[in-house]
Amino acid sequence: MNTSLPRWVDLGLIPALNLTLAFLVAGLVVVFIGENPVQALRFLVVGSLGSSYGIGFTLFYATTFVFTGLSVAIAFHAGLFNIGGEGQAALGGIGATLVCLAVPWPHWTLALPFALLGAGLFGAAWAFLPGYLQAKRGSHVVITTIMFNFIASALVVYLLVNVMKVPGSMSPETRNFAPGTHLPFMHEMLGAIGITVAKTPMNLSALLALLAAFLTWVLIWRTRLGYEMRAFGFSEPAAVYAGIDPVKITVIAMVLSGAMAGMMALNVVMGFQHRLVLDYVGGAGFVGIAVSLMGRSHPLGVVLAAILFGILYQGGAELAFEMPNISREMIVVIQALVILFTGALENLVRIPMQRLFARSRTRAA
């Protein structure tokens, strides 16, 4: 059934209902292990949103997910399913690190543009070859990006163990960046204008993530390139008939997608850890897929979905502390249920909604 739905239903009501179903099923799991689901939900919400400390950590995680979610969304609008954000983000960390270690930067305002460029270029370079192989050789981008995730992981391990590690150290990590490369933390920025909040890893890159979301909206809906990407994503034969070059669009979309994933390094590597450590991405590239799906690949939806997953990450840590029976693995189950109901089982809600609106229109006619 292809009955069109109002935008408020498609973009708002259906995701909300899917999310409600996910939490209801998660509540049943909590009951099954002998805990109170209402109490668990309270710990989840209060732990993530009940204090400036929780909010800071929630938005720190959300910042990372905005970048990786936008990465998936950009490719999706061109009809491409880029699931290589994990590897592209890992390479972005290498790019940002090389910039930060190359020069004794006197101030972050000088280091930031070059680190942004380095992270974006390395992420884009890692996405270029899968895009080129799909455009020229027909190698499906899903398969190649999966393979490139493993290659990126092995490459980063090799570099941290054999090339970039501090001499004499046993830890697979680089030396600390110069203080001039450290992005200001949000509690420092707010403290400068008289607002006191708890110290958290949230930093300037949270504002850069919002700027990235806005620029993505401009790109997709307000530029000729964005129009060509959307046209190509809707129908490749029609786009080719209209004179749109499929090779160019495929490669450009993947390059932009990879650059966005790479720029998540600003939040974690440059804004918080101030060095490159092993597995700094921590699965954020894969979470970006769920964020993009839940946000309908719209920048605003991506931001809101990223905040939701930030709540799950921070609130889940507090929940595991307050209720020991609910382990960290249980939080992963809750996240998986959200992904399941907003992705694979979306039609569980969408089809009844389409039938409901079809009946209402028939009666109105």
How would you characterize this protein structure?
The chain is mostly helical and 365 residues long. The chain has one domain (36-324): ABC transporter involved in vitamin B12 uptake, BtuC (Orthogonal Bundle). It has helices at residues 7-32, 37-49, 52-77, 85-102, 108-137, 141-163, 186-191, 205-222, 224-234, 236-241, 246-262, 265-273, 284-294, 299-322, 328-344, 347-364. The longest helix is centred in the middle third of the chain and has 30 residues, at 108-137.
Query: How many structural domains does the protein architecture include?
Result: 1
The number of helical runs is 16
Helix percent reads over 70%
The H/E string reads HHHHHHHHHHHHHHHH
Second rung of CATH, namely the architecture: Orthogonal Bundle
Number of strands: 0
Q: What fraction strand?
A: under 5%
Radius of gyration: 22 Å
CATH topology: ABC transporter involved in vitamin B12 uptake, BtuC
Shape: globular
Mean of the pLDDT scores?
A: 92
End-to-end separation in angstroms reads 19 Å
> Which CATH class applies here?
Mainly Alpha
Regions with pLDDT < 50 over 5+ consecutive residues?
none
Topology:
Layout: H1 7-32, H2 37-49, H3 52-77, H4 85-102, H5 108-137, H6 141-163, H7 186-191, H8 205-222, H9 224-234, H10 236-241, H11 246-262, H12 265-273, H13 284-294, H14 299-322, H15 328-344, H16 347-364
